Amino acid sequence: MNNGPVSCVYRAYEGGSLVATGRLVLDTLPEAGDEVTLNGRRHVVRAVEFGGGEHVLELEPIELTPG
User: Fold this and answer.
1) Is the dihedral of CA 55, 17, 33, 40 positive or negative?
2) pTM
3) Where in the chain are the domains?
């Protein structure tokens, strides 16, 4: 577990299509299944990867998540 803020690259998808990319600074590194807020909308973290020296989050809006 990270002890301080962590910078992450994110890729946000809607309906399987990539709709946004950017950077987030979070208090801790999330895990798959966690929720994060992006532009006022709740998203679920689908995957957390590490590439190019950075954490990469794959996000999908909760409203479009089945279940």
Assistant:
1) positive
2) 0.83
3) 6-64
Q: Nearest-CA neighbor of 58 among 39, 40, 31?
A: 31
The one-letter amino acid code at 55 reads: H
pLDDT of res. 67:
53
Give me the architecture of the 6-64 domain, per CATH.
Beta Barrel (2.40)
Enumerate residues 6+ apart whose C-beta is below 8 A from 56.
8, 9, 10, 11, 48, 49, 50
* DSSP H helix total and E strand total for the chain: 0, 5
The 10s digit of each residue's pLDDT in 39-64 is 889 999 999 999 889 999 999 999 75
DSSP-derived secondary structure letter, 3: S
pLDDT class of 4 with cuts at 50, 70, 90: confident
